[in-house]
Structure formats: C-alpha cells, structure tokens
TrEMBL record:
It comes from the Eukaryota. It comes from Bemisia tabaci. This is AAA-ATPase-like domain-containing protein. Residues 43-94, 123-283 form the AAA-ATPase-like domain. Keywords: Signal. It holds the Pfam family AAA-ATPase_like. PANTHER family: AAA-ATPASE-LIKE DOMAIN-CONTAINING PROTEIN, CONSERVED PROTEIN, WITH A WEAK D-GALACTARATE DEHYDRATASE/ALTRONATE HYDROLASE DOMAIN. Residues 1-22 form the signal peptide.
Length: 283
C-alpha cells in the first residue's frame, strides 16, 4: 500500500496538481475529448508541460500514472504523444517540419503534424529545456492507445470495443501497410515472410476481423514493426484500467477472465523490452 501511495503522490507532483485541464468559464464549456494541441490554443489550458521532462528522464521502463477521474490524465498522455511522435508521410517516410508544410497540398500529413513547435512557447515550462526538446521533439515512433471506450460484462462482449481501440492505433500507423507491402515483395526470405504475415494481420486488425488470440499479440506486432522501421518505440496507453472497472462486471468470475485477458495482452505488448524505449499506462 505504501508503494502505491508513493506512486500516486509522485504522479500528483509531476502533473502540478491540483487543477483540471478543462477549466470552465461562465457560460462556456470545453469538451474533455479535445486534444492537448486544441486545448493549448485556448485560454483554458493549465500548463503541465514539465511532466514531459519528468517522464522522459524518469529512470523507469514502464510508468504507471494513477490519478482520480477528471484530473487531466488523457490530456497529459496526448501531450506526450504530441511532443514525442515523429512525423511520417503516407509512404512511411519521416518528414521534418518546415514552413512549407502549411501550404504544400501534395504533402499528405495531418493538421497537427503541420503545426510548428509549440513547445518552445515561453509560456510553457518545458520551453526552458531546449536540449531536451532538441533531443526528443518529434523524434520517436509512438503507439498511442486509449481504452476509454472499451466496455463489456464478459471477455466476448468486451472484444468488439477492445478491437476498435487497438484498430484505431493501427489506423494511425496505416502508412506501414505500403511499407510492409514493399518488404513482402521479392525472393523468399525470413524478412519477406515476416512482412507478408505482418501485412496480413495488419489488414485483419484494420478491418476489425481479427480473432481474439491474435488480438492479444496485436500491439506486440505493432511495436515490432515500428521498431524495425524507426527504432525503439514509446508506448502510451490511456485508461488501461477502464475495461476492468468492477462496476462494469458484477460476476467476479467474468471480471477475473477479463483481467486475465488484458493481462496477457499487456504482457505480450511489453515482451520485447529492447523494442520499446519507455511506456506509460494511465488510469
């Protein structure tokens, strides 16, 4: 109990709490689903950017962030993604920011990728750490998964929403499909076979037709292929505990079965510890 309490207190300090990311003004309401970049553009954002430095420099491979509901965990996770995740075009090639991104109609990247670096904004605490920004801003492959919408009383009833949550992460990295297609072409070899197999599973997951056992290894596979393409991966899993909320499942046997399934999924995800640099689980 003491160790859990210490972790909770540490997380509170890291996030500069109290304070909610979505403060309300009279007659106005900011939706909590907004991303960090959207919130930063409003006057309602409470700066917690120093957490980026704390997380990056933390001497721990897997970090558990436990905070009460509505205390900004989701925005904190999205802030890390916005800071760390490298820009990639539709062909799976890295894209480095330039002013041309804002006007080039042929560059197939997202609006957020085209935004200039807001982390040098002097109003953000992280801006004081220019060396860290240079070393890590938009430098890493990131897997970002949210279990916020995963629900169900049993493993079987949970699988559709869990599949959807994981499939969204694969959708985000859809540029890997042409990469895998190119790697799969050529003489038979271990690498071409692996590419064909990964492509097959990638398509199943994006089509939401993957079976329950393959789903367990899906994030592990995504870590592996991103590591092979770009180097060690950073993993961000938001609301990891939502699917096992006891309030969703009255039958304790079913609750245990759900917990066992999710435990297997996470254990497989973190199996190859040298393929990912660091992971954060919030809940």
């Amino acid at each position: 109990m003491a160790s859990w309490l210490s972790l909770l207190v540490g997380c509170l300090l890291l996030l500069n709490l109290p304070g909610n990311d979505c403060e309300k003004a009279k007659g106005q309401d900011i939706e909590e689903e907004n991303t960090f970049l959207d919130l930063h553009a409003t006057k309602f954002y409470v700066d917690k950017s120093s957490f980026i430095r704390d997380f990056v420099l933390m001497d721990t491979k897997i970090v558990l962030l436990t905070l009460p509901p509505k205390w900004g965990k989701t925005v904190a996770v999205d802030m890390l993604r916005a800071f760390l995740e490298l820009n990639v075009d539709e062909n799976g090639e890295r894209v480095y920011w330039s002013p041309d991104m804002l006007t080039d109609p042929n560059l197939k990247i997202s609006r957020h990728q085209a935004m200039p670096n807001i982390f040098v904004d002097p109003n953000l605490k992280i801006s004081r750490h220019r060396t860290l920004i240079t070393a890590h801003y938009k430098r890493h492959p990131v897997i970002h998964v949210s279990f916020h919408d995963v629900q169900g009383d049993t493993v079987e009833s949970m699988l559709p929403s869990l599949t959807e949550a994981i499939a969204r992460a694969f959708d985000h990295h859809r540029y890997m499909q042409p990469v895998l297609s190119r790697d799969a072409v050529g003489p038979d070899s271990v690498s071409s076979y692996n590419a064909r197999y990964s492509l097959h599973i990638f398509e199943q997951i994006r089509n939401r037709t993957v079976d329950r056992e393959t789903l367990k290894t899906s994030l592990y596979m995504l870590v592996e292929i991103l590591n092979r393409k770009f180097g060690t991966v950073w993993i961000l899993i938001d609301a990891y505990d939502h699917p096992i909320d006891i309030g969703q499942t009255q039958d304790l046997a079913e609750a245990d079965a759900k917990m066992d399934y999710l435990r297997d999924l996470l254990q497989k995800t973190f199996k190859l510890r040298w393929h990912f640099h660091k992971a954060l689980l919030s809940g």
